[in-house]
């Protein structure tokens, strides 16, 4: 196991040079999101010293979107690249762990020539036709794995942003399928799409065949006099609750921000899209709540 203190400042080719023959790095993107496929990439860098074109390359999560796009183009120019993915249906059927391994195997098989050795980020080893070494925090240690992490991340992000044009209510253009507040609200308002992972919470809890609570929720402008009486909180995440009035109309969120529970007002205007900081209880936006409990929120919103 690799400790953080032992990580090099930048990924190197030291692990690649320990092995004879051709070496590829493999990494994935998209294990945690609520929607979209999991994508893996396999990268074989050219032999010789560290390419100057990849100076500054590291784990894709530590790079800006602009840097990732730049390195993506550079990697495509100098390296052999294979990309594989596992669909939402495969994720739900196999589970995310086995779907992840399947995507890695497909990425490996998509390379133009089979490597002799594979360095894989993490602890799990996909079944490949060569020697496989799992490297904890490999995207911080191996340049090949870092390159694969960028290719996988950019490929998947592009896919999700394209889907956002067809499904604009979930914030995929920015969250690329991860469980942000906007994504959760989109699920409540519009329900899951064909691209959502039905085996993942909250999709498999809120929208299970036995669950009906969400059907009474309304996402519309509140035209009448607002009242805090009879408010209801609906659990979304450990740090996030949706707040509805007694008629089932959505009026806000209770969110844990830096250890403090906070009320965020939400209003609905033309087109039915939510807007934070507006709505009938906008004057309370950003105020603290003692706990994520209906009575605590009622107490806050009933103050003068």
From TrEMBL:
EC number, UniProt record: 3.1.26.4
The protein's enzyme class: hydrolase
Compartment(s): Cytoplasm
Cofactor: Mn(2+); Mg(2+)
Keywords associated with the record: Cytoplasm, Endonuclease, Hydrolase, Manganese, Metal-binding, Nuclease
Catalytic activity entry: Endonucleolytic cleavage to 5'-phosphomonoester
GO CC terms: cytoplasm; ribonuclease H2 complex
SUPFAM superfamilies: Ribonuclease H-like (SSF53098)
Comment on bound cofactor: Manganese or magnesium. Binds 1 divalent metal ion per monomer in the absence of substrate. May bind a second metal ion after substrate binding.
Domain RNase H type-2: 21-212
GO MF: manganese ion binding; RNA binding; RNA-DNA hybrid ribonuclease activity
Its biological purpose: Endonuclease that specifically degrades the RNA of RNA-DNA hybrids.
Name of the protein described by the UniProt record: Ribonuclease HII
